[in-house]
Amino acid sequence: MNSLTKKLAAGVIAAATMLGFAGLGATTANAANASDGVIKVYNASPEFNGKTVTAYQMFTYDKEAVDNGTATNGGYALIDSWDAFFKDKATEFNLGEVSDANVKQKAYDYVSGLKDTAVVTFAKKASDWAKTNDSTLIAASLKHTATAAEDGNRYVATIENLPYGYYVVSPQGGSTDDSMTGNTPNKRGTDAILLNVKNNTPVEQKLKTTYPTVQKTVKNGTGDSNHNSAQIGDTVEFKLTSTVPDMTEYTNGYTFKFTDTLSKGLTLNNTNETAGTFTAIVKIGDQVLTEGYTATFTKDATAGTTSLEVNMTNFRDNHLNDAGKTITVEYSATLNKNAVVGTNGNDNTAKVVYSNDPSQNTTGDSKEDKTYTYDFNFGIDKVDADNKTKKLGGAQFELQDSEGNKITLVQSDTTSNTFRPKTNDDADSDVAKAEDVKTNDNGVLNFTGLKEGTYKVVETKAPTGYNKLSAPIEVVIHANYGPDGKLTDWGVTKSSETYDSNNTSTTITVENKQGLELPSTGSIGTALFTVFGVLIMALGAVWYVKSNRKSGKRA
Question: With contact defined as beta carbons under 8 Å apart, do 356 and 498 qualify?
């Protein structure tokens, strides 16, 4: 966010701007001229992207007459539509007696003699008059506009097909520093610019105007970031940060409000549904405000989103002397059961709406800023340890956090056998019973709505005929993010495994061994008696057979 102390007067034109102006004259006011002039207004700040720049032509410039040495007053001539401006300002500009016959020469003499801060003052007055008489200048084809767009490492508004002449250029208003005007630094100057277009070489002007910005952050651990991860039911803390603009010139008041949109997966906290208001902490510097703002919200029943607005009331009256100070808004929301899982996340968009023209009741928007809140899922694939194609149903599990605390679950989908953490909106009757959290006939059990980190999966009951796991399985949800806060990759591993961003599996395999009956202490005596009994019976049978054979022989 740019400091107001770095803002330079947007309307100050280098001395060279006026040097080419030496001689504005009485040549034909509306003389035809080349129309291949170009003005490029640029700035490196992304806030300039999409802003409108308007150029109003005030004087024509006869390049041909200048080149062949026949021009008077340097080739410049006031355009008819501007006669009224100089007549209206005759007293203010000390022009003396002004008439239709001499207004153009009076205008040339006055403007060509301007120096230093007087140039800035004139630019402002001319810009204000042009905006007020916009329709007149449009009718005379004197208004030209362009929108700033990205061009390499800067943002440029390129106004093309301009007749040669002298232009009052008005960018969409922001905040400026009039330190170059000799007044108190850090106070608003003018956004107006004066530029000469005398040939087809583009006239480039760096815009010194800066625009209100907003930075949205979300609490991520102990710090603020453009992203975080959360478990369904967790509180998510947001902060909006901007700077109090200089409002000196806005004598009719100043609009300044934060707007923010929460995605469907986030429920705004601390609301009054009847009044449509919510509780926010608003600060200017370190001072917590108890008044001077409203915090309201509306819900979109179709999209499921929530739109917030924190509107600063009587902002200029209350905070005219706070220019440059940080202004923050803090509030919270709860990640709900509608949260998007994984890559897309739950994005939230904020911007500032602010006054952008001291002479008119118009507003502009800052560049939007986003945060991303993510939640994740993982699944269990339960198999026979000796035959991994055999899926095991009926394995009962408990999900715990990294500290071993049981996570209370609600079944969110029966088809996929998926469970999520309970929220405050869930009734006690919705809570899944311990015996319900088990693998289905396909050996599948899924958990969703979890933040990144380590979890413990505890088997509380094994499938019939199998041994129960003797220790918890530690499962780790891994996530990596880009500089913009967007998720780049994520996956799930057991804690004993190394995460590979090229293998982003979200399922862990859990094996069970079949249960074998083990001998108990003292059982060897019984076994020996059994063996001896079998031997005795066998010997008796042999003796019996032999005895019968002998008896038969005797007979």
Answer: no
